[in-house]
Design goal:
This protein is an alpha/beta fold. It has helices at about 10-15, 25-40, 45-60, 65-75, 75-90, 100-115, 130-140, 155-165, 180-185, 195-200, 230-245, and strands at about 120-125, 145-155, 165-170, 185-190, 190-195, 200-205, 220-225, 245-255, 270, 275. Strand 9 and strand 10 form a beta hairpin. It is globular. It binds S-adenosylmethionine (SAM).
Length: about 280
């Protein structure tokens, strides 16, 4: 069979590398270079974290600093892709923080699927597809009459290509029970491919949360572990746009450690620990 895509890279090696002090002019230059080369707007990311990660990544690659990294990446496509992977952090897994998915099913997803003729879901920052396929499995298990569509978007085209491939290596299947493997996957040696019925529920598309207009309307938006390095103003603006993209009564589902600082100012209300609702 075809070689399956690489799993996401761990972030720890970059986090502990020695780093020069943050220099605002240099950060501005780095942001300009990255915008031109990778299409990411670093002005909307938290400078201290990005600075540490970029310089740490350069050192881990045997380069003295970010300047050398950028110069090398201009002519080296695989380094450019690794640089992008590092900045966007595509680490993910099926049923990440399982208890939150249980709450999603019982309090939000079941009632939606059982009371509406159709349900539209957006997995924003979907990485390698673990999140949208987790959603697709849950939708199939609830087996309600609603017609369901799941839009899965990410900034990174290479990550999306790997997500569309829908094939995962054994260790990436850790969160999937035997029963779910048997029902939703086809096994080929050490690899598992999502079955075509589940794949048909999900549409993958490139979308930059910091730059592109949001599609709408949605009943549920999942944006988990994506905004970690966004600045507070960039997060607030994104949450306002999510609110606008939700139907009244629609739910925003965030990562386990993510909270919205000033909920009312973005138009949402609390609907559980990491859940927010657009008021009806
Ligand atoms: C850590 S993964 C999270 C994956 C999944 N949501 C989860 O919780 O497991 C973060 C993903 O967000 C994507 N991402 C980062 N910045 C983004 C942006 N501005 N627009 C869209 N996606 C972005 C990255 O490419 C990466 O795949």
């Amino acid at each position: 069979m075809e070689t399956p895509p690489r799993p996401g890279r761990p972030i720890l090696p970059y986090a502990f590398a020695p780093v020069p002090e943050l220099d605002t002019d240099a950060y501005d230059r780095l942001a300009r270079e990255v915008r031109g080369m990778l299409g990411i707007d670093l002005k909307q990311y938290r400078p201290a974290q990005v600075w540490r990660r970029v310089n740490g990544f350069a050192v881990a690659r045997g380069l003295p600093d970010w300047d050398a990294l950028v110069a090398r990446a201009r002519d080296d496509a695989s380094l450019r892709q690794a640089f992008l992977d590092m900045l966007t952090i595509n680490v993910s897994e099926f049923f990440r923080n399982a208890e939150a998915w249980d709450v999603l099913v019982d309090r939000h997803l079941k009632p939606m699927l059982q009371s509406q003729p159709s349900v539209r879901i957006w997995s924003a920052g979907c990485s390698l597809g673990f999140e949208p396929f987790t959603l697709a499995m849950l939708v199939q298990e609830i087996a309600a009459p609603a017609k369901v569509r799941i839009l899965a978007t990410d900034l990174d085209e290479t990550t999306l290509a790997r997500a569309r491939f829908a094939t995962y290596a054994g260790p990436q299947m850790a969160g999937v029970s035997e029963a779910r493997r048997a029902r939703f996957f086809r096994r080929d040696g050490d690899y598992w491919t999502v079955n075509s019925e589940l794949q048909a529920l999900v549409t993958f598309r490139r979308h930059d949360l910091l730059a592109d207009p949001c599609h709408k309307p949605f009943d549920l938006i999942c944006c988990r572990n994506v905004v970690i390095y966004f600045t507070e103003p960039a997060k607030a603006e994104l949450y306002r746009r999510f609110c606008d993209a939700l139907r009244p009564g629609g739910i925003l589902f965030l990562g386990a450690t993510e909270t919205i600082q000033n909920i009312r100012s973005v138009g949402l209300e609390r609907a559980g620990l990491t859940f927010y609702r657009r008021p009806v």
